[in-house]
Amino acid sequence: MRYLGLDLGSKTLGVATSDNTKTIASSLKTIFFKDEDYDSLIPIVNQLVKEYSVEKIILGFPKNMDNSIGSRAEIALSFKEKIEDKINIEVVMQDERLTSVISNNILINADISRKKRKKKVDGLAAQVILQSYLDYERNGFNG
Predict the structure, then answer these.
(1) Model confidence over 11-29: pLDDT tens digits?
(2) For residues 18 and 87, what is the distance between their CA atoms, to the nearest angstrom?
(3) In the predicted structure, residue 143 carries a pLDDT above the cut 50
(4) Using the 8-state DSSP alphabet, how is residue 3 labeled?
(5) What's the CATH code of the domain at 89?
(6) Which residue range is the domain that position 14 belongs to?
(7) Are the C-beta atoms of 129 and 94 separated by less than 8 Å?
(8) Could you tell me the pLDDT band of residue 117, with boundaries at 50, 70 and 90?
(9) Total structural domains in the chain?
(10) Band of residue 104 on the pLDDT scale cut at 50, 70, 90
(11) At what angle do helices 71-87 and 42-51 cross, to 10 degrees?
């Protein structure tokens, strides 16, 4: 059984998966969808849950830097409810502040071109979100 990490954007869904020991997160893919058509993602997420034997989904929670909940966080909470209702799986919200910055810095340091970075940043952000959760679950701290 694995965990699935998701980074929800307005047009993309970054996807990562854990290994079976729930130790290491790996970027899986980025799914592109019509602007804010989140309902179209539910069957895709359901397929990923089945294909990878997922027992829990870790969804990025885009809180504001002052810890308040803005419109993007409200959308993520709504998406969480849709997944739980339609797929019947636990969804855990994971603070995702700065994950896109971290992901972009990793790709810049790896000398990935700007064009290629744009295609990979969401999947890598999902990986960072999931890895943060795995580390927290294993070690009891969020780092």
Answers:
(1) 999 999 999 999 999 999 9
(2) 19
(3) no
(4) E
(5) 3.30.420.140
(6) 2-139
(7) yes
(8) low
(9) 1
(10) low
(11) 60
